[in-house]
Amino acid sequence: MPDPASISCEDLSYAYPGEAEPALSGVGFEVRAGEYVGVVGPNGGGKSTLLRLLNGLLAAGSGTVRIAGHDPTTEPFEVRQRVGMLFQNPENGLVAPFVEDDVAFGLENLGVPRGEMRARVRGAIEAVGLAGYERREPHTLSGGEKQRVALAGLLALEPEILLLDEPTSMLDAAGRREVLDRLRGLRREKTILHVTHHLEELLDADRILVMNGGELVADVYPAQLISDPDLLARNYLVLPPLLRLASGLGLEAKKPRTPEDLAREIQHRSPRRTEAR
């Protein structure tokens, strides 16, 4: 029996109205409960379309999608109880005058009792490291803080699955680190599908799906992807500077965890600096 908390797609296809070529064609994969799976590929590869099919914003042209055993098209309420989606622009997810009101917004729409709502809002704000920000106005926050508020709003709804559509693409380096640190803290607690153009964000993912031209062209471990120059080149994927440096130094890709891990290995293996005269 399939895991009821997993994502499952079989022969999934979708074409936008008026488009000659399908946005997705014959895509099939499964994600087990608690897995952290990355999705990469060039623009137009089908990544964002896939996420919208998974949460029911689009209906599949053919094939099947199951979220925790449910069809997003025919059982949208059951699916959206289980799925939270974080978009690129944090501004789009902020709707209330204060942080705590924003985090509570979805719970209010669901009619969650006031006492339970307060507890869930408090727990979600703490989970993203924003305790003490409850009465801050969202427009006064940094980009990373705004995205963490949006993430808290999802966590308050207690979804089993998080769909992340390039959640750090509009953030500076500090904001990216803030959000990624919080997402890493959710490992094993949530099933996560993370679309990104930044390969370094996925070094500690369980798997990476590579999409191109609407097709799933590879389902590999991170170390397999970063050590396969042909796979990278065919799918217009570029290693970040640190990984290119590691490759140039001949460092073997043995399941790298983070850029910091690679930096330490480079420092360890590089020749010692000559002493200052």
Question: What would you note in describing this structure?
Answer:
Helices cover 35% and strands 19% of the residues. It is of the alpha/beta class. The chain folds into two domains: 7-238, P-loop containing nucleotide triphosphate hydrolases (Rossmann fold, 3-Layer(aba) Sandwich); 239-272. The strands form two sheets. Strands 5-6-7-3-8-9 form a six-stranded mixed beta sheet, sandwiched between helices. Strands 2-1-4 form a three-stranded antiparallel beta sheet. Strand 8 and strand 9 (215-220) form a beta hairpin. Helix 3 (99-110) packs across helix 4 (114-127) and helix 9 runs parallel beside helix 10 (259-269). The protein starts with 6 loop residues before the first strand and ends in an 8-residue tail after the last helix.
